[in-house]
Amino acid sequence: MRKQIAAANWKMNLTITEGQQLLDQLLSHSYDLNENRQVVFAVPAPYLAMAQAAVSEKKHIHIAAQNCYNKKSGAYTGETSVVMLNSLGITHVVLGHSERREYFQESNQFLAEKVNIALEHQITPIFCCGEPLQIREAGTQNEFVAKQLEESLYHLSADELKKVVIAYEPIWAIGTGKTATSEQAQEMHAYIRQQLAAKYGDAVAQEITILYGGSVKASNAQELFSQPDVDGGLVGGASLIADEFKVIIDSLK
Q: Active-site residues (predicted)?
């Protein structure tokens, strides 16, 4: 069975006290987790050490950075390297989130370099892809997403690709309260898996975890996650509310 993952993306929210309180509330709950049913918290960089310490005794719960740089070290003021993440015991990193692409002009090639350096340091990339509203309205979302995959991931070997988690984000459904229907989510997830199968073979494609990231809430998580090619979610706003995210975790297959 593919890994089913509930990933929380806190974005640029919460004070450290609020973050500690949220983790305390979430970690006090008993979840049915195992090797194939996991939780990831992507927290702001200043809170990585705190969050890692909080989950260090918890099985199948991991901490992710929200970004990293494409170099190991050097004169890159304000950036975070994979070496730094390794030194904290961080196991995952979110790469290519739509906000990074839009606000910081991160290109597919730049993201390919970040994917490479994360894998080189045994950090699991959660690679985000997805289309903005104008692309969806033009009906060219498949070609748009296929190009993101091709330019950022298709240089990888099959063994390397199997270490990547993909998160599909319909950008028009992030923070808007407008959610893709479960059918629309399944359609794109199936398309992504078909593209991976065409490049790497069906056996490899069937191993890749593909998360849905577009206004996942407690009220729609179970329906979204029940789709055959949806392997969990990358959750924004709802992950900041303990009672909401508990339900989302419990909605995993």
A: 97, 169
Cα–Cα distance, 92 to 149 (Å, whole number) = 19
Averaged pLDDT of the chain? 96
Residue by residue, DSSP assigns 103-144 as HH---HHHHHHHHHHHHHTT-EEEEEE---HHHHHHT-HHHH
Joined tokens for residue 13: 């929210």
DSSP string, 152-179: HHTTS-HHHHTTPEEEE--GGGSSSS--
Q: Does domain 4-250 have CATH number 3.90.950.10?
A: no
Q: What's the CA dihedral at 186, 188, 194, 196 to 10 degrees?
A: -120
Question: What is the predicted pLDDT for the residue at 173?
Answer: 78
Contact status, residue 59 vs residue 33, Cβ threshold 8 Å: yes
Residue 160 contacts by C-beta under 8 Å, 6 or more apart in sequence?
Answer: 119
142 in a known ligand binding site: no
* 169 assigned to active site: yes
The catalytic position among 106, 169, 189, 244 is 169
130 marked as part of a ligand binding site: no
> In degrees rounded to 5, what are phi and psi of residue 248?
-65, -45
Alpha carbon separation from 158 to 42, 162, 193, 196, 225 (Å, rounded): 26, 6, 14, 10, 26
* Burial class of residue 173 in the structure, from the number of CB atoms within 10 Å of its CB (0-12 exposed, 13-18 middle, 19+ buried): buried
Residue type present at position 185:
A
Q: Given the residues 62, 92, 97, 189, select the one marked as catalytic.
A: 97
Domain ranges of the chain: 4-250
The annotation status of 215 as a binding-site residue, yes or no, is yes
Count how many residues are written for the chain: 253
